Amino acid sequence: MTQTVHLPLWLFILILLFAAVTALSHFLLPSVRWFFRRRLEKAVARLNKRLTRPIEPFKLAERHDMIQRLIYDPEVTQEIVNYAEKNRVPENVAFQKAREYAREIVPGFSAFAYFSFGIRLARILAEAVYRINRADANDEIFAAVPKESTVVFIMNHRSNMDYVLVTYLASRSTTMSYAVGEWARVWPLSSMIKLWGAYFIRRLSHGALYRKVLARYVQLATQGGVTQAIFPEGGLSLTGALQEPKMGLLAYVAEAFDPKTERDIVFVPVAINYDRVLEDRVLIAANKRGDRRFGARISVVVFAFFRKFWQRLRGKDTRFGSAAVAFGQPLSLRDAGLQDDVEGLSAALMERLATAMPVLAVPLIATALLRGDPIPEADMAGQVNALMSKVPPQNRTSEGAALLPDIERGLRGLRRRGIIRLNEGAWHVLPQRMDVLQFYASSIAHFLPEDAARAREFAATAGS
Question: Is residue 352 located within the same domain as residue 375?
Fold first, then answer.
């Protein structure tokens, strides 16, 4: 027992490391975790005092516990049995498949990452790329939603910047959980997005087991009061106009409503519009091809963001005009009685989105130019203001003299991109870029039906 044992130095170090890890895991780490957990709970309690809608306990649950709760849910368990019978595999294999789906879907929300890093990054990106325009009534509309209800933001999808804008603008009031597609499953973006509370969904997965796991997660989150954000169009608009809604996630949310409980589900329409959509040419090209293969690499997008940010730090104004966010009239699922009519619910929400759409300078410029005749430089402001006067007052982001700087910036931007040109004192559309103007004019066409009809007729004639 007292004999000397000779070991190589590397093996001795390895044994010490294993011993240290064992000691930490059994004696120190539990105490350290408890200490930091307590600190986090106190920080969240202070944070909840200043939020209009506090962070719900469901969202703060440990990710492992949420995964266990999900895969042992009775409805998921029954679907595991069905999967095993249908595919003739052992139930433990089907159970493991459900666990994989749950691990893929369930986020690992971190209040620290969300408020110390996520919100700051969203603010930096949003303000580096756009002049942010938020409707005056937004705070009033959101504050009027009953505190005991679950809020579901219903948003039109124009750009991947939608996530950034709404997260930034809502950060003073609440935290949000997004459904994001396969585009976000790229390291390190995937890890950050899960920390911020987003959950991944497979747009093209039609397996019953996957759909059940996803449905139960959305329903448990809804019943737990988690504020969610849904894009009912399912993907980016290829035309600039609102698209037909897809009812998958809306159906899951509606099924979570229990009229016997006090918790209502309130849908808040969030209409988003831009002077420039970063991906406009990619989306227009995909629409012409008739597919949704965008071909834009995440590395290119990240590089473009950092380049703009660097230029901004050097004092240059690199913003692409304005981006506007406006809340529409909320819809109470209890009052509307549409929990069993998802098609009617989606139609009502899309109508409220259209009604709330903010109107910016570039869509108006595009509408005016698509009438067909060159517009004298001196007349452009008057024509754009005349179009703005036809828009309902609550949808106008500015008007009169306040609109002039936006018009000038919009014209400079369109000219710089080679979409329009100034020739002999008049603004002309370059025929090969007419599709870009149509893309922007379509976002407000429902407010200007006569002008939109003339624009479509001119675009069809010019393209033939």
Answer: no
Residue 118 within a domain: yes
Task: Quote the pLDDT of residue 21.
Answer: 64
Task: Give the DSSP letter string of 10-78.
Answer: HHHHHHHHHHHHHHIIIIIHHHHHHHHHHHHHHHHHHHHHHSSSPPPHHHHS-HHHHHHHHHTSHHHHH
Range with lowest mean pLDDT among 135-139, 214-218, 302-306, 382-386: 302-306
Query: Are residues 113 and 249 located together in one domain of the fold?
Result: yes
Flag whether 231 is in a domain: yes
- Most confident by average pLDDT, 156-160, 199-203, 383-387, 399-403: 383-387
> Mapping DSSP to helix (H, G, I), strand (E, B) and coil, where does residue 438 land?
helix
| Residue 359 β-bridge partners | 396
The two structure tokens encoding residue 68: 């266990």
First to last CA, the chain: 96
Average pLDDT over residues 143-160: 91
Which residues neighbour 159 within 8 Å (Cβ) at sequence distance 6 or greater?
236, 272, 274, 277, 278, 279
Judge whether 67 lies within some domain. Answer: no
Residues 365 and 350 both lie in one domain: no
Q: Which helix (H) or strand (E) holds 117?
A: none
Between CA 462 and CA 201 the distance in angstroms is: 41
Domain end call among 330, 356, 382: 356
| Backbone Cα Rg of the chain | 26
One-letter amino acid at 116 equals: S
Residue 303 lies in a domain: yes
Closest C-alpha among 227, 246, 255 to residue 157: 246
Average pLDDT, the chain: 83
Q: What is the pLDDT of residue 166?
A: 85
Total structural domains within the chain: 2
pTM for this model (two decimals)? 0.83
Q: Are residues 340 and 391 in the same domain?
A: no
247-298 pLDDT, tens digit per residue, is 889 999 999 998 888 899 999 999 999 999 988 998 999 999 888 776 655 5
Q: What is the domain extent for residue 316?
A: 102-356
- Per-residue pLDDT at 55: 65
| 407 band by pLDDT with thresholds 50, 70 and 90 | very high
